[in-house]
Amino acid sequence: MKLPExxxxxxxxxxxxxxxxxxxxxxxxxxxxxxxxxxxxxxxAVFVRDAAGTVLGGLYGETYGGWLFIRYLVMPEAARRTxxxxxxxxxxxxxxxxxxxxxxxxxxxxxxxxxxYRKLGYEEFGRIALPPVGERLYFRKAL
Length: 143
Fold this sequence. Notes:
Blueprint: H1 17-34, E1 42-49, E2 55-64, E3 67-74, H2 84-98, E4 103-109, H3 114-119, E5 123-129, E6 135-142
Parallel strand pairs: 3-4
Antiparallel strand pairs: 1-2, 2-3, 4-6, 5-6
């Protein structure tokens, strides 16, 4: 395939942070032209730390355009099934509501904790095969 004059393609396994950030910045500029005044991307994190401040687990995600996108949730092994995960999720959802979000979205693997999300009111809206270890599941919840 011939590229337009002056352009080239590069494949990079460890791009710089500045290069990685260029893509969401470019996409956001396009989105703002098409959807003026929409809610911007904002990070949200709820960490589980030990007494020394070391992160042992928690949640990381972003809010954007009325949605909470949960990217990572992991609880320390010893704290699983104690209600801590439910508390972490509730705190992130509260932040999202304060930011004007109407819904939350996440994905997980079938061997992780889909039942946990269902108990919190998340509804599965899609799944894809993930050979050889199961499936990837997609969930949403109205906030």
